[in-house]
Amino acid sequence: PPMPTLRPYTPTDVPACLALFDTNVPRYFAPHERQDFAAYLLHSHRAHDYLVIEHNGHLVACGGLALDNEHTAAFCWGMVDRTRHRQGLGTQLSHARLAHARTLGAQRVTLSTSQYTQAFYAGLGFVVTHITPDGHGPGLDAVEMALELAPR
Description:
The chain has five helices and seven strands; from the N terminus they run βαααβββαβαββ. The chain has helices at about 15-25, 35-40, 45-50, 90-105, 120-125, and strands at about 5-10, 50-55, 60-65, 70-80, 110-115, 125-135, 140-150.
């Protein structure tokens, strides 16, 4: 079978990305966040800072990277189809985003996740910097994490 393919996002991916989001509500995203995600996807820079993973003609994961300043990048809106969790797609997507952060010269990568995906990111080397109970919505804590990138 063909391997999942990582490629840059295109505006035609909007419906598929929103469908991915929907598979992860309410456990990983709060319903009210969908509007923010939709607005994010329509931004003109997305083709440069958002990635998707396609498999057998379907989008199975997506995620972005934003440069906060010259030294810090942030993971944005990363998700994997709920039916495809624990198959290595999130790891593939995260490694691609970390590689992109390095090419941009970032020395640190931050992200905001929930208690449900905290362990996944910890496995990649991220450490918790702050937790806000219910920060993403009722029952969804905002877990702020950071990873210091080794100098090249």
